[in-house]
Amino acid sequence: MFDLDKLVNDYLVPFGLKIAMAIVIWIVGGIIINVVARLVRGAMTRRAIDPTLVRYTESTLRIALRIAIIISILSVCGIETTSFAALLAAAGIAIGAAWSGLLSNFASGIFLIVLRPFKTGDMISAGGVTGVVDEIGLFVTTLTTPDNLRVYVGNTKVFGDNITVYDANAFRRVDLSAQLAHTVDVQDAIARLRARIAQIPNVMSTPAVDVAILEFTPAGPVLAVRPYCHNRDYWQVYFDTNRAIAEVGGTAHWPVPAPRQIFMPPPGDASKAAMPVPSAAGGAAPASPLPNAPTP
To answer: Among 1, 74, 168, 215, which residue has the fewest nearby CB atoms (within 10 Å)?
Structure first.
């Protein structure tokens, strides 16, 4: 005969108590997690720790405490947690093998936070991308490029490549060049450019503007033009320096640089090369610069 009291007392009541206890543990545990995370975040913020590291620590703490709550609930419900731990470990191995790339990004993110080669707000060049760091996430680093594009770069690629931090030093150098013609007075050009570029806004007086001969080309000497400025003013100084080079050249009436070639005739043919060659119209055509050029 069906015994309802036995079903209720032996099965439903204990099961209901376990469910109620699990709900209480979940709710109370969630409150405790929020309180602990808030306290940890406040303590780290007061110590002026990097915001990215604060978010990392808070997220890791929440995940670890949530797993502990789940294990406690399983124990209350009568589920053997030892078997569950073994199952979780096996699942972790399988997931690790399948998601090796993601775990590599995660490990690289941890190293980026601990070693701190750069921080949020820095302008960097890493993983083939140049931009301002918005966030160093668990798996990717978020950058905003100068043309206002948001790019997500895997932490493995960032950490495994060369990292250039443009904001690490107080100022940087702008590297430009000015091509001169052969007939331009080089020393006068250097003095004019140095004086004009020093007047550009946001160009630093110390270090002073560098203007010097960089190399010689068939078109004439090339000057290296190198002002110094703050990182945030780089592109303004870059474009203004190019404009200043053009203005100085126009004011001084520098000729357009062009390659010059001098043809030297073989010994004994100089008089022949200089002789006028009759033209088809009966006049005299100018002598050809080439000693063995065909007669028109």
So the answer is: 1
